């Protein structure tokens, strides 16, 4: 009798009503190393249960044959005499498989020594094979499905193939270690390109290229971004994330598109200025000079007989340059060292490059000498190669203070209190992660934004727009019906000109006016340089005179940084990264200096350039509060580290110190010019077209007080 109290082997030997597949499934399930077989056998069991049912003890020999075939457990070799006799019967009835291209011939030895040949096709079962199945003549699931040859080939060849692959990899690695340096490489201190010997054979050159490609590909994305990949499972459209990744990869500091020339002159600096024209008001190009006699001095370049473009916002950049140069390169700017020659460098603080070619598909080419800018630059470095990004302007006075706190005051827009403080950057601290989540859940569930009705990258024909005020007048919408305006702003097809393209901020403001339960988006009238009202205010509530400070923003769950005139928001992005809410970041073709350090769906929720997915992303955030709280947590951790003394200095070393050091090594001044003043050098190398005016800014460091998110 069958009984659960009997041993497993006894039940197999005596219980006649248990199926063959049930036996094999139970056996393999009891072996931890073979658990992966159980699902497969269970699936076969469901399909073939009717073919494999044992009704007599005479079938046990066949069951044991299957178990012996699929396992090598030593316990099954310690058998009784009766079991051995049974085994001999099984061996006498074993199958001999002969594999052909289209079919397999099976010779079966039956009782009495009679031989009978049967045909079994790999694709379908013949009537003969059906008979074999019904009579339980097949002794394994692989034989039943006709995959014995495949499994045997895998088992016998995989190990040898693995060994060969390992040996090949080892040989390539050892060979790479013995290779000479790359054919071209850049030396930091000399700035010279060094070449390998021209006597190298063509075969060696080809091998070097292949190995270089192989190892460079292996280094790409080492370690991956497991956290980021996990987060992206929540994304509505993963194509956006690939687009953001591509933009971020393009935006790395200069990439491989620009190398500082091995030799630079003052004339090269003046020639590079032409690629930054036209200049924006309040944003001219400057010259940093150093001489052993006068040490550091700042100058503003201007056209002769033109009115001076007064820069009233760049004193923070001046403090930054003085603090970093005197600290990181103290030996080079030591006046007591007679070997130190006069030095000059061009820099600017423009919102973004105004030259229209920077927004074209072909770009502007390369500058003769690099210019360091504290403003926004294109994410694609080839658009204007040589425009190197220093830390974004609002960070400049903060960094000066980090380098020399006794000489330079902390930037007014930043401090790290544990509670809200008017217009200072707000980074809250929590006793526990649960407290952080509770804080996030208590915030106002709306997306908030305040800013001016600025133009957006208006010098770039391919992407730029006018202001909302200009757009409405250009298309004659001031007196149109409400539905016509909604269609023109929210549902129109992409336009091909700056005048007819919908400004992103106008799109957001109209959308917010239609959905006040989810959005609190308003233009402000606080900036005298921007429109103070809209011609459709009677139909949509777009403007407000109410101001919001850091305390007000910190009460909202969703924070937006819609790009302004230069395509980014400078200080606002850092502000919102540090607040309890989650940032909705406007992805544009432009970048600020810290954009390499933040990632979509890790530190912020990305928005398309035209903001067409704004409503969709807000709805996603409402449905995924836990994920948004995690994004906010990581963003706050980044902002806290970024704005610490160590974080600011680290950011400076990465974005400015290295390229500035390369520039110092490359800059040369003729012996005949070493005693010539900066003003006279400008006149000499511009053929009298340019002059310099000493720049001594009297205004405080630029704080973004005119308008947040400009």
* Fraction in beta strands: 5-15%
Radius of gyration: 37 Å
Overall number of strands: 19
Structural class comes to alpha/beta
Biggest sheet: strands, sense, closure? 6 strands, mixed
Q: How do the strands of the widest beta sheet line up side by side?
A: 11-9-8-6-7-19
Provide a brief overview of the structure:
The chain is α/β, with parallel strands linked by helices and 710 residues long. It contains 24 helices and 19 strands. The relative contact order is 0.10.
Strand-helix topology:
Elements: H1 8-14, H2 20-29, H3 37-48, H4 60-70, H5 81-92, E1 95-99, E2 103-109, E3 115-121, H6 127-134, H7 141-145, H8 148-177, E4 184-186, E5 193-195, H9 202-219, H10 226-231, H11 238-250, H12 266-273, E6 285-291, E7 295-303, H13 315-328, E8 343-348, E9 366-373, E10 377-378, E11 385-389, H14 396-403, H15 433-441, E12 444-451, H16 468-474, H17 482-490, H18 504-514, E13 519-524, E14 543-544, H19 550-553, E15 556-560, H20 571-577, E16 582-586, E17 590-591, E18 605-607, H21 614-623, H22 625-642, H23 645-666, H24 678-685, E19 690-694
Parallel strand pairs: 8-9, 9-11, 12-13, 12-15, 13-14, 15-16, 16-18
Antiparallel strand pairs: 1-2, 2-3, 4-5, 6-7, 6-8, 7-19, 10-17
Helix pairs in contact: 2-3, 4-5, 13-14, 14-23, 15-22
């Amino acid at each position: 009798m069958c009984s659960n109290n009997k041993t497993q082997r006894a039940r197999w030997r005596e219980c006649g009503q248990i199926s063959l597949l049930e036996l094999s499934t139970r056996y393999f399930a009891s072996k931890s190393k073979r658990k992966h077989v159980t699902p497969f056998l269970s699936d076969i069991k469901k399909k073939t249960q009717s073919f494999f049912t044992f009704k007599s003890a005479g079938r046990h020999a066949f069951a044991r044959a299957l178990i012996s075939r699929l396992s090598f457990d030593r316990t099954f070799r310690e058998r009784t005499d009766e079991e051995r006799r049974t085994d001999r019967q099984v061996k006498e009835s074993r199958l001999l498989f002969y594999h052909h291209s289209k079919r397999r011939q099976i010779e079966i030895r039956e009782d009495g020594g009679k031989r009978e040949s049967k045909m079994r096709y790999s694709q379908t079962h013949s009537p003969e094979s059906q008979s074999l199945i019904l009579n339980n003549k097949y002794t394994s699931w692989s034989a039943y499905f006709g995959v014995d040859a495949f499994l045997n080939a895998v088992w016998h060849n995989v190990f040898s193939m693995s060994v060969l692959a390992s040996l090949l990899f080892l040989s390539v690695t050892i060979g790479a270690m013995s290779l000479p340096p790359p054919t071209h490489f850049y030396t930091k201190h000399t700035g010279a390109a060094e070449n390998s010997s021209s006597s190298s054979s063509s075969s060696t050159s080809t091998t070097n290229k292949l190995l270089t490609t192989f190892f460079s590909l292996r280094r790409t994305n080492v370690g991956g971004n497991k956290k980021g990949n996990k987060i992206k499972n929540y994304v509505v459209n993963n194509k956006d994330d690939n687009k953001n990744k591509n933009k971020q990869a393009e935006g790395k500091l200069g990439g491989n598109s620009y190398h500082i020339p091995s030799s630079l002159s003052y004339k090269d600096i003046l020639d590079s200025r032409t690629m930054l024209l036209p200049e924006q008001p309040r944003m001219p190009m400057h010259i940093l000079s150093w001489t052993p006699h006068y040490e550091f001095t700042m100058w503003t370049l201007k056209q002769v007989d033109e009115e001076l473009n007064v820069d009233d916002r760049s004193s923070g950049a001046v403090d930054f340059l003085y603090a970093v140069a005197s600290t990181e390169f103290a030996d080079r700017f030591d006046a007591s060292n007679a070997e130190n020659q006069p030095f000059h460098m061009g820099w600017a603080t423009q919102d973004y490059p105004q030259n229209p070619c920077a927004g074209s598909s072909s770009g502007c080419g390369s500058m003769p000498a690099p210019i360091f800018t504290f403003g926004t630059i294109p994410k694609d470095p080839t658009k204007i190669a040589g425009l190197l990004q220093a830390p974004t302007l609002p960070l400049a006075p903060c960094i000066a203070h980090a380098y020399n706190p006794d000489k330079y005051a902390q930037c007014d827009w930043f401090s790290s209190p544990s509670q809200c403080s008017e217009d200072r950057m707000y980074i809250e601290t929590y006793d526990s992660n649960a407290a952080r989540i509770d804080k996030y859940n208590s915030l106002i569930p709306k997306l908030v934004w305040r800013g001016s009705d600025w133009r957006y990258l208006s010098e770039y024909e391919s992407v730029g727009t006018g202001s909302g005020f200009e757009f409405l007048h250009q298309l004659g919408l001031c007196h149109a019906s409400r539905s016509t305006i909604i269609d023109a702003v929210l549902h129109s097809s992409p336009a091909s000109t700056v005048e007819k393209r919908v400004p992103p901020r106008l799109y957001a403001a109209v959308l917010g006016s239609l959905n006040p339960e989810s959005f609190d988006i308003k233009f402000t009238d606080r900036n005298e340089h921007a429109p103070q009202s809209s011609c459709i205010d009677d139909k949509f509530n777009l403007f407000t005179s109410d101001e919001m400070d850091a305390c007000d923003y910190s009460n909202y769950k969703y924070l937006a940084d819609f790009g302004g005139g230069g395509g980014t928001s400078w200080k606002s992005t850092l502000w919102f990264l540090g607040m309890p809410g989650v940032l909705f970041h406007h992805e544009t073709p432009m970048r600020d200096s810290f954009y390499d350090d933040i990632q979509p769906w890790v530190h912020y929720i990305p928005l398309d350039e035209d903001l067409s997915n704004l409503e969709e992303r807000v709805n996603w955030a409402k449905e995924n509060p836990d994920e948004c709280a995690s994004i906010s947590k990581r963003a706050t951790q980044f902002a806290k580290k970024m704005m610490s003394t160590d974080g600011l200095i680290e950011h400076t070393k990465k974005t400015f110190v290295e390229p500035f050091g390369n520039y110092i090594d490359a800059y040369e001044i003729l012996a005949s010019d070493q005693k010539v003043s900066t003003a006279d050098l400008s006149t000499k190398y511009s053929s009298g077209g340019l002059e310099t005016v000493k720049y001594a800014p009297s205004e405080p460091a630029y704080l973004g007080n005119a308008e947040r998110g400009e």
